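Lecture notes, part 5. Sequence design as translation. It can be helpful to think of inverse folding as translation between two languages: the language of shapes and the language of residues. The source text, in structure tokens, appears below.
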């Protein structure tokens, strides 16, 4: 008996041991990015259905560490898969397969954020053509997955696409992008025309990602609720001068909850109804054997919604911009909850350099116990902007078609064929 119990105990202990992904998430949320990266690199060795999710998590840590080159390579590979389609077979398979058994490609707002991070990285490098391509892909991901009244409300992507267009001397395109940003976030003063000459842009990531849960018949549908976090905004200081309070650029809970219902949701609802019907029939029948078989069929029927998610995302992304003279500054960020300062959230960053001939893009993330440090900031370059592949026609065109790289990218009416990011090659992990 003892010989039987020992292996069983070892098996139980192994089943209860946290995975590399679990350990990575724990390390990430306590801001130990070195340990988090080690764990996520381990989990990323696994392929299969969570291939994209593992890489999104690894890229998030790399981004937080400031290893933008590594994050870029991982994100580009992930976004390429996320943009792909599986064809009609996926809908057929979903009738008999559990949603979580399929390849993870993310919800629309997750696809938008992956492309948004790509855009930020290219903006830092001064590659405004590829940066704008990333921001336009973010806008397209949002538009493709949103109900009609909520399309084109990923304001911060429109804002940065506008800034890229200015750098590329495409002022008509810039005007349209900024109009879209202001329409989505009319109260954001940093999107106003008088702020567009600012040379320092702060991107502030607040809080925790929306939480995905099951709902509907048989738990067949998914829904999102607000992640648990306290911070609602931030004040930004350079030395002893306050630059401003943050303004929202995008609320990811809003993005998550305004996604349109798809064919997949219809199939999932049908599966949930069938599952509940089997349970009801099992209760109502008088034959015990039939009842048992129906109950077993209900238990085994795969109706549950897929609750996998990229939960290392923030809950909101805010922006602050300012015009600063060239030099080195101490940047302080005071996060607050409504009107109350969160003392344990203060971050102080030394040695932040502002150049005379380049934008300075600074990306920070809130969190209790994050103190700051000394940083070498990446300034957006001033050299060749490059040009995205497959750019669309100028602003006046309603249905853009692929054109030469000398033409501008269409941000307005069509945007059915957004530019692709170029200058990168796929590499195996």
């Amino acid at each position: 008996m003892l010989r039987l119990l020992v292996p069983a105990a070892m098996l139980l202990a192994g089943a209860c041991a946290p995975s590399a992904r679990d350990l990575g998430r724990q390390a990430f949320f306590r801001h130990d990015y070195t340990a988090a990266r080690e764990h996520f690199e381990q989990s990323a060795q696994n392929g299969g259905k969570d291939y994209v999710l593992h890489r999104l998590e690894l890229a998030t840590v790399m981004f937080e560490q400031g290893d933008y080159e590594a994050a870029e390579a991982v994100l580009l590979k992930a976004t390429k898969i996320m943009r792909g389609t599986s064809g009609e077979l996926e809908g057929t398979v979903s009738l008999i397969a559990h949603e979580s058994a399929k390849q993870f490609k993310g919800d629309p707002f997750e696809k938008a954020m992956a492309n948004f991070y790509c855009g930020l990285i290219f903006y830092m490098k001064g590659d405004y053509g590829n940066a704008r391509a990333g921001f336009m892909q973010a806008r397209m991901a949002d538009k493709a997955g949103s109900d009609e009244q909520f399309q084109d409300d990923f304001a911060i992507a429109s804002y940065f696409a506008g800034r890229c267009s200015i750098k590329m001397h495409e002022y008509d395109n810039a005007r349209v992008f900024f109009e879209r940003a202001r329409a989505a976030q009319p109260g954001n003063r940093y999107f106003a025309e008088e702020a567009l000459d600012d040379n320092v842009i702060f991107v502030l990531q607040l809080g925790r990602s929306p939480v995905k849960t099951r709902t509907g018949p048989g738990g067949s549908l998914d829904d999102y609720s607000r992640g648990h976090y306290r911070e609602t905004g931030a004040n930004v200081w350079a030395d002893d001068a306050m630059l401003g309070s943050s303004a929202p650029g995008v609320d990811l809970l809003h993005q998550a909850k305004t996604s349109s219902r798809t064919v997949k949701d219809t199939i999932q609802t049908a599966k949930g109804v069938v599952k509940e019907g089997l349970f009801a029939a099992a209760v109502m029948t008088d034959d015990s054997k039939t009842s048992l078989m129906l109950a077993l069929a209900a238990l085994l029927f795969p109706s549950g919604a897929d609750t996998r998610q990229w939960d290392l995302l923030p809950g909101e992304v805010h922006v602050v911009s300012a015009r600063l003279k060239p030099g080195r500054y101490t940047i302080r960020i005071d996060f607050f909850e409504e009107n109350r300062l969160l003392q344990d959230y203060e971050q102080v960053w030394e040695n932040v350099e502002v150049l005379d001939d380049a934008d300075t893009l600074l990306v920070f993330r809130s969190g209790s116990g994050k103190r700051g440090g000394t940083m070498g900031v990446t300034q957006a370059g001033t050299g060749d902007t490059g040009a995205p592949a497959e750019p669309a026609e100028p602003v006046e065109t309603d249905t853009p078609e692929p054109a030469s790289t000398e033409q501008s990218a269409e941000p307005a009416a069509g945007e059915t064929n957004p530019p692709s990011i170029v200058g990168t090659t796929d590499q195996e992990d």
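The translated text above is only one of many valid answers, since several sequences can fold into similar shapes. The longest strand covers residues 327-337.
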